[in-house]
Amino acid sequence: MVQVNRTSQRKKRERNYVGLMVAIIVIVALIDQAVKQLMLNWLEPGQAVAVIGDWFRFYLLFNPGAAFSMGQDSTWLFTTIQLVFVVGALIAAFFIRQPWYAVGIALIAGGALGNLCDRLFREPGFWFGHVVDYISVGNFAVFNLADASITIGVVVFVIAVFLDDSDKAEKQDAQEVKDGEAQ
């Protein structure tokens, strides 16, 4: 009986993380859009405002492509990929049982949703909109909060993969049940 209780306790802990993921996705996208609107109201396109010398600046530009402005003629493709990822993440939320996987995927999806909003609703038009970028660090490409969220999400997800011991825990549970049946 003790073995069954231990297993049922583990199952309770291994719930899905739909609420957590939706909250992270929505919060990241809303903050991203709010900061973009603030930057649009404050800066002119191409205008740079030094925050920490030339190392950290706010610099407003519009990016039709992906990271580092690659694929500028493929805006429709990036829009489609982001939409598929956000929908896929919401579906996956019902099946994810590890909290750090949920956080990583939600950060990626929240960033994708933030940039997707730009691609859907900003100039030059629906599905082909340009992403608002405004963070300039050193000589690195100009990016935004959504991009940072995607990067952090990937790092969290990769770390979660390397630290995942769920197979070990499942094997331990199975062995405990087996040992309990043998007694």
From TrEMBL:
Pfam families: Peptidase_A8
Subcellular location: Cell membrane
Topology in the lipid bilayer: Multi-pass membrane protein
GO cellular component terms, A-Z: plasma membrane
Domain of life (superkingdom): Bacteria
Keywords (A to Z) from UniProt: Aspartyl protease, Cell membrane, Hydrolase, Lipoprotein, Membrane, Protease, Transmembrane, Transmembrane helix
Reactions listed under catalytic activity: Release of signal peptides from bacterial membrane prolipoproteins. Hydrolyzes -Xaa-Yaa-Zaa-|-(S,diacylglyceryl)Cys-, in which Xaa is hydrophobic (preferably Leu), and Yaa (Ala or Ser) and Zaa (Gly or Ala) have small, neutral side chains
TM annotation in the entry: 16-35, 76-96, 101-121, 141-163
GO MF annotation list: aspartic-type endopeptidase activity
Pathway: Protein modification; lipoprotein biosynthesis (signal peptide cleavage)
Database matches in InterPro entries: Peptidase_A8
Active site: 133, 147
EC number in record: 3.4.23.36
Keyword field contains Transmembrane: yes
Family: Belongs to the peptidase A8 family.
HAMAP family noted in UniProt: LspA (MF_00161)
Name listed for the protein in its UniProt record: Lipoprotein signal peptidase
Protein species of origin: Corynebacterium pilosum
Taxonomy of the source species: Bacteria, Bacillati, Actinomycetota, Actinomycetes, Mycobacteriales
